[in-house]
Write a structure and sequence with these properties.
The complex is a heterodimer of chains A (82) and B (582). Chain A is 48% helix and 0% strand. Chain A has 82 residues and is an all-alpha fold. Chain A has one domain: Orthogonal Bundle (Non-ribosomal Peptide Synthetase Peptidyl Carrier Protein, Chain A), CATH 1.10.1200.10. Chain A starts with a helix and ends with a helix. Chain B is an alpha/beta fold and 582 residues long. Chain B is 30% helix and 22% strand. In chain B, the strands form six sheets. Chain B has a nine-stranded mixed β-sheet, sandwiched between helices. Chain B has a five-stranded parallel β-sheet with strand order 4-3-5-6-7. In chain B, helix 4 runs antiparallel to helix 5. The radius of gyration of chain B is 23 Å and the shape is globular. The chains are: A mainly alpha (82), B alpha/beta (582). At the A-B interface, helix 2 of A face helix 8, helix 11 and helix 18 of B.
Chain lengths: 82, 582
């Protein structure tokens, strides 16, 4: 789980924040509700996770709430990893 | 009793002077939107009334009175004037929905300059195209977004001033200027520019099928259309607490997120936060919002999150709901009536070019779920035959939505593109210039959308008449996406279309051929998606990429989007005899 969190967090920092961004993102930082990841960009984040973990996340489960923190994303991924 | 009262009576007795009565306008008053939305409300005795209730990320919140609006917009006007910004200069506003966006918008107008708001999620390439087109002289932005400006500023010789209004001033680079209006000296008096009705006010960029985005130029006279529709369609009244969810980077966010409601002196709410259903409901509950103007995409996202969630909040303050951006499906209208205590969303139709609501459902009138409603009083609307371009009289027949020119909020030109402006008018003579076109009631301005009219006069939206993609209520030009796609190292050729989407109506789908040495893969697809997201915007990012060996083309080599679109939508592909490849 910790490795997964690291991977997801690193991707978010690389893709959605700029190098000199002062925002510090942790596993519990809001992503959607803070605007770091908007609802359209969530599609590419979901695609990354699906590619990385070879899973398919149903649209009804990939809600803004489920994608709002690294912790909540990883919980959702784990449910689908079985 | 709603403001419009009887639609039938309003149609019969209409003239645009009524807008002046609604604002209690006296002849000789200064017609400057910046002053109308702030100074004028204070002069009438409402300076202490709340103008803006703002909430941002986390727990940030603030309230501002109309007197604050007056003083802070004065502050921006004075500051820009001292920097040498002059009437007619284009000043870009490129920031999230923070309070300074609203203050600076009014300040730019008070100075007589032209406000050019741009959606803050635009990437550097989208930003550059629009700043270069407008010859923008100054940009007002924040620390978060100034990075995109830095990447492109050397290619923009007209961009002389980069102003940062939020963030740490120590982090700015050479040539950037910091300005925090709320911690600067209060400017009680500013000599507001004596604008005429035809003085340019706002420049909004909009996308078309071909070429880069075009700047639709509006004037201070637009306020009559925006204020009267805000009164009659949104039904804004003195004691309302109003929430327009649109971003002022798009026309709804300025016409109905700034100008219309504040010209009337109504309290507005702004939520500068990412979308979650519970956050939105809480915002309505906490601020006792009464009138809510939103978009079908958001409404469908709320629907998706279920009825039960609505019950967790006290939304009893709501009294009127309206929607704009794309057609509101009948299911969403019916759903809203069920969960919001009988209140149904009233669909409204208009566009960047029209500047104000044109066809709509009115308070107190029967809503036919799925219908756009009827033309606003004073608007001469028609549906034109697709071939002859003559008005159709037959109920249910599909044609082009068109309006005869002359309403106050109509755009006055596409910035420095008179030929494209002319092409929007049916019946225009070959060399007619914008001023002749916009004042000639014998012409038809063609909106680019198709609809039919039923036997009772209700309009029913059918779809776009061109290849422009309507995603989440925003128009995205396929040409701009295709141009950016072929800049990706792996892509040889590209075509972009809209594909159906339950929440956003359409989302972007790209068809690409790859250069030698590149192979289709999931990782490449993600890389292309992120490439477009960063260069253009999240809206323009393809949500699906289909790899092809070749793309359908005409014999002259032009990619045929309509063929790809027809297949995607399961429609008849039509005549394909001119295709060379498929």
């Amino acid at each position: 789980m910790d490795k997964m969190k690291e991977t997801v967090l690193e991707y978010i920092v690389d893709e959605y924040l700029d190098e000199d961004d002062e925002d510090v993102v942790s596993y519990d930082s809001p992503l959607i509700s803070s605007g770091i990841v908007d609802s359209f960009s969530m599609v590419s984040l979901k695609r990354f996770i699906e590619n990385k973990y070879s899973i398919k996340l149903p649209d009804e489960e990939a809600t803004p709430e489920a994608f709002d923190t690294v912790n909540s994303i990883c919980r959702l991924v784990n449910q689908h990893l079985g | 009793m709603s403001n419009i009262g009887s639609y039938v009576e309003r149609i019969q007795n209409f003239n645009w002077e009524i807008a002046k009565d609604v604002l209690d306008w006296k002849e000789g008053e200064l017609l400057n939107i910046g002053a109308i939305c702030s100074d004028r409300i204070c002069t009438r005795g409402d300076g202490k009334k709340t103008a803006l209730i703002w909430e941002g990320f986390g727990d940030k919140s603030a309230r501002y009175t109309f007197d604050d609006l007056r003083v802070y917009s004065n502050g921006f006007a004075e500051f820009l004037s001292e920097l040498g910004i002059e009437p007619g200069d284009r000043v870009c506003l490129f920031m999230d929905k923070i309070p300074s966006l609203y203050f600076s918008f009014l300040g730019v107008l008070k100075l007589g300059a032209i406000a050019q708001p741009l959606f803050s999620a635009f990437g550097d390439e989208s930003l550059e195209v629009r700043l270069a087109s407008a010859g923008t002289r100054a940009i007002i932005t924040t620390r978060k977004h100034v990075r995109k400006v830095r990447k492109i500023k050397d290619r923009l010789p007209n961009l002389e001033k980069i102003i940062v209004v939020e963030g740490n001033p120590d982090k700015l680079k050479e040539g950037e200027i910091f300005f925090d209006v709320e911690n600067s000296a209060r400017i009680e008096e500013f000599d507001v520019y004596k604008s005429s009705p035809e003085t340019p006010s706002v420049l909004h960029y909009t996308s078309g099928t071909t070429g880069q985005p075009k700047g639709a130029l509006h004037v201070h006279n637009s306020v009559w259309g925006q204020a009267l529709t805000a009164s009659w369609v949104l039904d804004l009244q003195d004691d309302d607490v109003y929430w327009c969810t649109a971003d002022p980077g798009w026309v709804t966010g300025t016409s109905y997120g700034i100008i219309g409601p504040w010209a009337l002196g109504v309290t507005q709410c702004v939520l500068d936060s990412g979308f979650t259903s519970s956050r939105w409901y809480k915002f309505i509950q906490d601020n006792r919002i009464t009138v809510w103007y939103s978009a079908p995409t958001a409404i469908r996202a709320l629907m998706k999150d279920g009825d039960e969630l609505v019950g967790d909040f006290d939304l009893s303050s709501l009294r009127h709901l309206a929607s704009v951006g794309e057609p509101l499906n009948a299911e969403a209208v019916i759903w809203s009536g069920e969960v919001f205590d009988g209140l149904k969303f009233h669909d409204t139709f208009w566009q960047t070019e029209t500047g104000s609501i044109m066809i709509t459902n009115y308070p107190g009138m029967e809503i036919r779920p799925g219908s756009m409603g009827m033309p606003f009083p004073g608007i001469n609307a028609a549906v034109l035959d697709l071939t002859t371009h003559l008005p159709l009289n037959e109920a249910g027949k599909v044609g082009l939505i068109a309006f005869s020119p002359g309403w106050p909020s109509m755009f006055r030109q596409y910035w420095k593109k008179p030929d494209i402006y002319r092409s929007k008018f049916v019946g225009a003579s070959p060399n007619a210039m914008p001023d002749e076109l916009r004042t000639n009631p014998d012409l038809w301005y063609v909106s680019g959308d198709r609809a039919s009219i039923d036997k009772d006069g209700y309009y029913w939206f059918v779809g776009r008449d061109d290849d422009v993609i309507n995603t989440g209520g925003h128009l995205v030009g396929p040409f701009e996406i295709e141009s950016a796609l072929v800049e990706h190292e792996a892509i040889a050729e590209a075509a972009a279309i809209g594909k159906p989407d339950k929440v956003n109506m359409e989302v972007v789908k790209a068809f690409v051929t790859l250069k030698p040495g590149f192979e289709p893969s999931d990782d490449l697809e993600l890389d292309i998606m992120n490439f477009i997201r960063k260069r253009l915007s999240p809206l323009a990012m393809p949500q699906e990429i289909e790899y092809r060996d070749k793309l359908p083309k005409t014999r002259s080599g032009k990619i045929v989007r309509r063929y790809l679109r027809a297949i995607e939508w399961g429609e008849e592909v039509g005549d394909i005899s001119s295709l060379s490849d498929e």
